[in-house]
Specification:
The protein is α/β, with parallel strands linked by helices. The chain is 54% helix and 9% strand.
Length: 393
């Protein structure tokens, strides 16, 4: 390099008469660490590397070299294989794990192919045999710097590519969720009594899942399933959806086709969200096996669907419905009904989690009744918080 100083972030472009040639584009110098227990060899390599523009450091042992690497970045390490205490191969393993951006060239006096193969297998970019010519060191270091540049560029490219893929995936998911919400809004236009229902069911379901300490991915799918659980009602006659007063048996059977209709509609587009699909299909199943559409019972009902069933029923009871002459139930009455049906229609563990979410304020009254009314009621609820307190205590 004829005395020119190489900079950090240099880009190696070739060799000139065995000298390292680089494009300078950084603020600091390339650094080289020579690790050998023989002082005269360290000094010889150091003088060579400094003549090539490197800032050169020395270490008489692998332990001392690791201490230096822990304090500052080093571009390339030239290390002997045979050293007291920690040998060169152990040192190489440590460097590759702790300082992966540092290139390593191993130096050995053993003319053994197995040693060379071991060095390369452990992550060394090259190796030198003693005795060696200084021109050979120049050439090998030049090749190593080029390999290092390519590795770092590839790693940077992979990182940028992964970030772009993740960003695209987020955009696609946002578009998908917007489409699902559009489905829900389309249903709400058809059935004025369910306006906001899907959002509330989703929120209640998430709160229950959090009270049950479910993992983030499970809660994410619960949230999606809550938003689209009633999509199948698009296939229900409006005269049935909006009928004032009780439904006939035929009308009830017709409206209860919506879980399967929704499942068929969404199966092609919810392939990445199988738990959300379970909510769509099974949110009207009952613990006692008398639900629809499959007559599942107990733990045979997917947990996410058992959670959505409680959230769905609570919102239905505390919202206006065409078929309910007396209007919506009070919070006290709705919670009492959930407790009464715990073990027959609803999963008792889910009901307890619901009550816990109400007690800590995660679920509050979204229909106008003061939150304190429900909090005061659940405080005295023997079927809910007594068990909860025992579990928390």
């Amino acid at each position: 390099m004829n005395g020119a100083r190489a900079k950090v972030g240099v880009r190696l472009v070739g060799q000139d008469s065995g000298h390292v040639q680089a494009v300078l584009d950084g603020a600091g110098k390339l650094t080289c660490l020579v690790v050998d227990d023989e002082p005269h060899l360290r000094h010889a390599i150091r003088r060579l590397m400094e003549s090539e523009g490197f800032e050169c450091l020395e270490a008489a042992s692998a332990e001392a070299a690791l201490a230096i690497l822990g304090e500052r970045p080093v571009t390339v390490v030239l290390s002997d294989v045979r050293m007291p205490r920690m040998d060169g191969l152990t040192f190489l393993r440590e460097v590759r794990v702790r300082f992966p951006d540092t290139a390593v060239v191993m130096i050995t006096a053993v003319a053994d192919v197995d040693v060379a193969v071991s060095c390369l297998g452990l992550g060394a970019m090259d190796y030198l045999m003693k005795p060696f010519h200084l021109d050979e060191v120049r050439a090998r270091v030049g090749q190593v710097l080029e390999k290092r540049r390519l590795v770092l560029e590839n790693r940077s490219y992979q990182k940028r590519l992964e970030e772009r893929v993740q960003a695209q995936a987020r955009r696609l998911e946002d578009q998908f969720l917007a489409t699902m919400q559009a489905f829900a809004h389309a249903l709400e236009v058809k059935d004025r009594y369910t306006r906001g229902h899907s959002i509330r069911v989703s929120q209640y379901s998430v709160a229950i899942g959090q009270a049950m300490d479910l993992d983030a991915e499970l809660i994410r799918q619960i949230e999606i399933g809550g938003h689209v659980h009633d999509i199948g009602k698009i296939g229900v006659r409006e005269s049935v959806l909006n009928k004032p007063g009780p439904l006939t048996d035929e009308e009830y059977q017709h409206i209860m086709t919506h879980p399967m209709v929704g499942w068929r509609i969404l199966s092609p587009v919810l392939t990445d969200y199988p738990l959300a699909l379970q909510i769509v299909r099974s949110h009207h199943e009952r613990i006692d096996g008398r639900g629809m559409p499959d007559g599942l019972a107990g733990t045979g009902i997917p947990l996410v669907a058992r959670i959505a069933a409680v959230a769905d029923s609570f919102d239905a009871m505390t919202s206006g419905r065409a078929y309910r002459r007396g209007g919506r139930l009070s919070l006290e009455a709705a919670v009492a009904e959930l407790e009464r049906c715990s073990g027959t229609q609803f999963d008792p563990d889910v009901v307890r989690a619901f009550l816990a979410a109400v007690a800590d304020g995660t679920i509050s009254d979204t229909h106008g009744t003061p939150t304190g009314e429900l909090a005061a009621f659940t405080e005295h609820s023997t079927a809910g918080l007594g068990v909860l307190a025992a579990r928390r205590g």
